[in-house]
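Lab notebook, bench 4. Still working through the backlog of constructs that have no structural model yet. Next entry is a single chain of 922 residues. Request: give me the structure tokens for it.
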Amino acid sequence: MSSDKQVHLILVDGSGFIFRAFHALPPMTSPDGTPVNAVYGFSNMLSRLLREHAGTHLAVIFDAGRHTFRNDLYDEYKAHRPEPPEDLRPQFSLVRDATAAFGVPALEEAGWEADDLIAAYARKVTDAGGQCTIYSSDKDLMQLIRPGVMMMDPIKNRPIGAKEVEAKFGVTPDKVAQVQALIGDPVDNVPGVPGIGPKTASALMAEYGSLDAILAGAEGMKASKRRDNLLAHADMARLSLQLVTLREDAPCPEPLSDLACCDVDMARLGAWLSDMGFSSLLQRMGLKAKPRPRISAHDTPAARPAGELPPIPPEPYGPYETVTDPEVLRKWVEQARTGGVCAVDTETDGLDPLTAPLVGISLAPQCGRACYIPLSHQVDLMDSLGTPQMPVKTALDILDPLFADPSVLKVFQNAKFDLLVLTQAGCVQPAPIDDTMLISYAQSAGKHGQGMDELSRLTLDHTPIPYDEVTGTGRNRVVFSKVDIARATPYAAEDADVTLRLWQVLRPQLRTNHALALYEEMERPLVPILADMERAGIAVDADDLRAMSTEFAQRMGVIEAEIHTLAGRDFNVGSPKQLGEILFDEMGLPGGKRTKAGAWGTDSSVLQDLADQGHDLPARILAWRQLAKLKSTYADALLNQINPATGRVHTSFQMAVTTTGRLSSNDPNLQNIPIRTEEGGRIRRAFVAAPGHVLVSADYSQIELRLLADVADIPALREAFELGQDIHARTASEVFGIPLEGMDPLTRRRAKAINFGIIYGISAFGLGRQLGIPPGEARGYIDAYFARYPGIRDYMERVKAEARAKGYVTTPFGRRCWVPGIADKSAVRRNYAERQAINAPLQGGAADIIKRAMVRIPAALSDAGLDGRMLLQVHDELVFEVRKDDADRLAALVRQVMESAATLSVPLVVETGTGTNWADAH
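Model written out:
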């Protein structure tokens, strides 16, 4: 190695170059579809640099994270920088991989910017008599230029010296920082002095010689706005100088001797370039592709050959660390910032994220390395390790900058729950985020469950510590805050560790499984929107609920008396055992079947069969059960679900439960309120708007039939929708040969039953039951329907064949809906699976469309200056709350967004309504 006096150090501004390369080059992807244009630009530059440079030492310098000492000086520093483009995020780690593949040292230091490290190494080298060349065009580095230090524009491949700096700033390099302090920098949010631009700043520097002299002389300047600003903002100018001056006393992470140039391992480099698909670069360098495992400088997923699944991370699970000291937590935060990705998990004392207390938080910045931060365990104010727990506010103050840092991806399993828990505790809402539950769901809806434990077993071949193991079971179960911290730590920290490992394996498969757009454009953006909806809740009229409960109880009493009269004696109507004895032992009704326990079966299907045969008692039992369910589920339960802090009920939207992508809800379940019955309308009347506001309902009209007309390409149905005709009357006219004019209601009702039944794969028996006609007659209707619309039967057969061949069907927007029972040996289960396969692309397509609309609506409302809130999503309907005077504007805007959420061969139509309660708006 050369002595220091002979050293010529080449420093590459890696952090600055990646942004320039990203915007300078057209989009490119690796073999598996990962964006790599910035990586390619960086690799090209590095290969040329290695070929042409005359240096003795070489290093690439990166930023370790967003938070540096400058943020401590001025908390608004770089606060307004936008989130990196989606296609750029995966390239940050790949650029580090490229550096490792080329055998070049990559340097970074937590708490310092790359520019500071460059300044420190430049000073170190020149003080020893050496030279330094900085490969960058960043104006902030131009203050370093002096004898022995020069810059080289890596894209234009031209030198930048004192002459070029003076032409740009009007001053010599040693005064650049002072000019920048006057001008300020809106990109980095450096305040500067208002009204002073480059020309004014350089003129002042020429006249006064320094920033201190300018500020000292401001009092004697001629009266002007400039003088006033200099006097008013003198302290900000001095602060700005501290922010823009590069620190030559920054640490040097590696000794200079370790940066000596060495020969490149060409086999290693060739394998990496081949994996990335950089064939032109391979050819230019005379290398032969030899596929081998990806070289990784950071433990994050990157590009790999198409079809090759990411390996399971091999690191052991634990041991994990309990963090109760703020300084230790700060080190974990810095590690997360350095890596650029961190899994996060919360522990609570309940399942309602709006009311459950936050007990602790887990972080996992690397696989196998995770910690648990206990916050409110009830252990006599001391944890089991004898260390006081951190106050919640202290921990969140330390974590907030990490959660808000746009350069660090926060990974959750079921992110919506954790976002609500954290924000309810007073934390900033984490962003950007990824959600392993939704990443998996976007690829495997219906194939398996999306819970963390199940995904861990399926994906990682690892069974996490069971919840029951740490909290106990049955009467011995305790809430999590009463779990000893020494037992809580391995359980809680493992959750974050498993989440990060799931992300590493599942995230790259989104492209392979053609689910990336679905996840990025629908599922992930919906997380904060649904969280806001749950947080907002909806008001209910408690007095009306009590009146409704009384009303339902009275009607149940009337029906119960009728049931006793029909049975010939009193009995407990709610007892399946007593009902079975009445129906099959005493009344001798046909079709009874005993359960394994020996009692008669009396579920709704049994009662419906009997009712269809004309037996009145089973029909009255069904009516009684319906009222009993509505009374207990809504009239009574809603009173207990009113949040005392908000006076509203807050349903929870489940994002990864259904096979088709539809949202479901619980506590309360709003999906099961009857739509067309009097009782359903009565329940909806209890959901009300806040004083001075109204509810606006926006509902897609016949969206699944429109999708059927589109995907099955049925000209007659398409024409009917395009002309705005009554689709059921048109169907009746087409199938039964009856003119549209004067269509009788019964015929239209039969056509309507066929239209909606077909998309659910209805059988002749099922249609006959709906219409009250024999199955043979219903079969004739179905045959006539398919004869008129043969394209629909072709579509159904095509979809069933797809399900049998692939195991799943696909919505028009690319969502895979898995149908596990499609190959079942049981004909009953197989037929059911076929009906699922027929309906899934239509119901799933409708779910995709409304999700696309939901993602766009909040921004549309904001842009229009409307403060209306989206409160509910129920199937194809959205419900909003808005000031009464703004209702018409909101309804028109929402209709426009929803109708333009997708482009079909038929128009999407949205019907809106307004009212002080949901029933009137619906």
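Notes after review: The CA atoms of residues 304 and 620 lie 63 Å apart. The radius of gyration is 34 Å. Flag for follow-up if needed.
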